[in-house]
């Protein structure tokens, strides 16, 4: 797939990211969609994630010479086949952009057992791409600026809640027609002795407190770095973080050792 166009960070709070075509001109349809996401309270990181998915789709359309308004289920089907079977484009090194890139074989991490990413798109990336494109065309379908039929439709619904347990909540049944099934992943982990060695190598009580809170609460590192002094309650062993997606304040239980390192810091 030709590496046409790019997703550029602007530094402008009104337009954090901008999708550019091969000539360097912004894609107006994506700019309008980004404005809708920003109005709905989506952070700039979400715009970047959605922009990467849209960049893959527009590169496919530019390769097959189809205008995005004229895309049909045929193009959506072929794109879904390509992203599942094809290989990821190799990004050249910034020091030598014209030099061909030689891919070295990757090995399984001997410590954590994590497998290399490989040259194929991950199932989570494919599913995220389908969700973004269905939302993108749904927005333009409602605004009257896109095709009359969404190229990424929902799958035909089966019998709605045929064997539903009345004690359970109703869950959405329909998914994207071209959305692959997600395999269940094994949680990431490292051996205890490796973690103890890592913890012993930390040079300050602040880092020890952060790592202890990170392991015991399961919160993101960015969420822990934003904790205020008033957010720690050692008496109840709770720490208050601001969630990344919802921006809501949530109290999380933490281990006593984490509060000991925080007190030492």
Structure overview:
With 265 residues, the protein is mainly alpha-helical. The protein folds into two domains: 1-90 and 115-155 and 174-181, DNA polymerase, domain 1 (Orthogonal Bundle); 192-264, Intergrase catalytic core (hpI Integrase, Chain A). The protein has helices at residues 28-39, 44-64, 73-85, 123-143, 192-201, 205-217, 221-225, 256-264; strands spanning 6-12, 15-20, 232-233, 238-242, 249-253. The strands form two sheets. The chain has a three-stranded antiparallel beta sheet with strand order 3-4-5, with no helix packed on it. A hairpin with a 2-residue loop joins strand 1 (6-12) and strand 2. Helix 1 (28-39) packs antiparallel against helix 2. The chain is globular and about 60 Å long. The termini are far apart.
CATH class of the largest domain: Mainly Alpha
Task: State the domain count.
Answer: 2
Q: Order of strands side by side in the largest beta sheet?
A: 3-4-5
CATH architecture of the largest domain: Orthogonal Bundle
Q: What's the total helix number?
A: 8
- What is the residue-averaged pLDDT? 84
Q: Determine Rg (CA atoms, Å).
A: 23 Å
Q: Report the sheet-strand fraction.
A: 5-15%
Protein topology:
Layout: E1 6-12, E2 15-20, H1 28-39, H2 44-64, H3 73-85, H4 123-143, H5 192-201, H6 205-217, H7 221-225, E3 232-233, E4 238-242, E5 249-253, H8 256-264
Antiparallel strand pairs: 1-2, 3-4, 4-5
Helix pairs in contact: 1-2, 2-4, 6-8
